[in-house]
Write a structure and sequence with these properties.
Blueprint (H helix, E strand, L loop, with lengths): L20 H11 L3 H14 L4 H13 L3 H14 L5 H13 L3 H14 L1 H6 L1 H8 L10 E5 L8 E6 L5 E5 L19 E5 L5 E3 L10 E6 L5 E6 L18 E7 L5 E6 L9 E6 L5 E6 L9 E7 L5 E6 L10 E7 L2 E6 L9 E6 L10 E2 L10 E6 L4 E6 L8 E7 L7 E9 L10 E5 L5 E6 L5 E6 L4 E6 L8 E5 L5 E8 L5 E6 L1 E2 L10 E6 L4 E7 L5 E6 L6 E10 L6 E9 L3 E4 H4 L3 E2 L8 H4 L16 H16 L3 E8 L6 H20 L8 E7 L19 H7 L1 E9 L1
Parallel strand pairs: 21-27, 28-35, 29-36, 37-38
Antiparallel strand pairs: 1-20, 2-3, 3-4, 4-5, 6-7, 7-8, 8-9, 10-11, 11-12, 12-13, 14-15, 15-16, 16-17, 18-19, 19-20, 21-24, 22-23, 22-25, 25-26, 28-32, 30-31, 30-33, 33-34, 37-39
Length: about 725
Amino acid sequence: MNKVLFIAILFSAFSFQSQTRTIKNVNSDFEHLNYWKVKPSLEKLLKQEPTNETYAYQLAYCAFQMHDNMEAYSLLRAFNTKNGFKQLTTYSLYYSICNATQHYDEAITVLEKIKSIFPKESENSTWLKHQSTQTNREQLKSTFEVSIARFNSTSADFGGYPCPDGSFLILSSQGNNMIKRRWLGNGDNFLDFYRLMENKKLVRMKKPMNSRYHEGPLCYHPNGKWVYFTRNTPSKSVSNTQSTGLRNLTLYLADVRQDGGWENIRALSINSPDYSTGHPYVDSDGKTLYFSSNRPGGFGGTDLYKATIGDDGNVINPVNLGNGINTEKQEMFPWVNHGMLFFSSDGHFGFGGLDVFVSPVSNNGTMNRVKNAGTPINTSTDDFALIFTNENSGFVSSNRGDFGSDNIYHFSQVKPIVFQNQLTLIVMEQETKKSLTNYPLVVLDNQGKIIDTIATDAKGNVSLNVTPNQTYSFKSTDPSLSDKVWEYSSTLDEKQSFTVEVPTRPSLQIIALVTEKNSKLPVDSVKIEIRNKIDNAIIYSGYTNADGTCGTKLKDLTKDQSIPFEITLSKNGYINQTVSYSHTVNRSETINLHEKIDLSVGKINIGANLADLIDIKPIYFDRGKYTIRPDASLELDKIVKIMNQYPNMVIELGSHTDCRSSVASNQTLSQNRAKASADYIKKRISKPERISGVGYGETKLIVDCPCEGTVVSDCSEELHAKNRRTEFIITKMN
């Protein structure tokens, strides 16, 4: 293809010292890209000096630029066989030509020789690194479908740039039959703008859209009022009458008239006579201009840049896209679609000549991952100027040889282009920000389908591959968080992170102080067991310290969770104690269990009243009766339980009355009640002889309330009730 569209000046790698006029003219024509003119002279010079590598390089380069790839390959292959190469530039050209002629195995051999002969240069060459590391040309094979556009002429045609009115502008070298304007680079006519009409005919545009020299790639601003375009002008070192020399590419801005024509054409401020600037693309937001330039400070050849578009349409602050995109060779023809930068390059690993490549544009604008667009977009020839005109279709140009030198092709993208990115999940507690290690999460796609189950590492992190611009959901496997979903929309960045803050599960710190029931002093070495009454699971089992305390912390509870506890206290020489307590968890907190419930234990001493050591209510009888009532049986069952726990315990059950009624009747009533109570217990314990019932009547009043004979007691009913009691005195512990 016409390389002038990419670079207006190719820097010669050789310094020619000959003083003859012929050699001076050859060098001048070669430096000014006049390949068509200089080629015959180079053929004569190489015939005169067949070992001159400079002439061999220049002649092969001219043939390569004029699409005579096989001629260039045969020339360099023969020269290398006879003389061998000494210059890195010659090896590099031969490598490119081997790829362009599909001699891929030979290209690999040449590449290995370059790295062997020029190790220092290879180490510092971004181009060679790309050739060595990008080993797969077909990652995106069959992502596109390609067909020839039927409006191509027999001349060079490329482009297909969309216009605001829905038409397309094509660049073509068909020329004007009335005026012959030829470029000496390859002898073709200069490239002009043509409008593609509905009948598929190409109509040449008039001034000022076309000038005397090459027109180049363009892009309309989304506002439809501006157009950015590329244009060549004559070199100062060549007379205008010759019309053969070219100066650098220049970027222009024009206002678009209502009829589609251009006016008020002005050069952008980022241009310079010292280097080329061209190939514009305006991002969809209208704020960024991508372009190609060989300005100083780049990586070599032409690099891709981006710059900010001002309110007046001018462009400022150009920034190189970096060596992830740019190489020492040529990068050009930028176009962005759905966050993907498409461009052409002969510096990345390709099929030969220029290939189309694609790279995701990250949120911060960086681009460092490149994939070859694969076949059928790319061939061993030049493939370039990929332009999206619709959501997933457009035009691409190539000199693969269907009609003229360069032709335009329709393409459709039939598969998505996927760059897998790495997402690091950082999982922590919401309140404490503490990392959660080995924390399981379920990963769901945007359809709610489970695609993976993952767990965090020792640092609370876990990494996974994600597709750009996709929504992922993460759910905890914790049933209490079944309704909690964390959503993340992936970006184009290669490395991403997302923090999952898990609601902090409340904890419950339980402190227990066990005391002796009567003395209220702390009791050590008491075994305390706490169970969850729902599933009977043991929550804690331990012993009290010297100060009578012990405790535990329940973690990962659920907010508003109600936990019914059953607490059992046991120690030799003390009555075992079992109590219940329920607590609702609202937040992380500490509870002193002994302040909520009675955690005292009664010491077993001979003569002690068992009723004082356990939680037992008074034994009630109906007035004047001694039949065991249902409420009384509940209390007597507590005695049964204790006596079965302690099979060697001997109890005297004493029944007492108050002073009211006669002594004799009180004695009889208490004896009957004592016997009835003892008989109830005997039926329910082992060794029933261990309990006996004794009626004491009113002989052992604990409150002095005399009421015999004519004495009328002034005691309250409450005081009388204290005298009416049942005692369970421990008489033996065998």
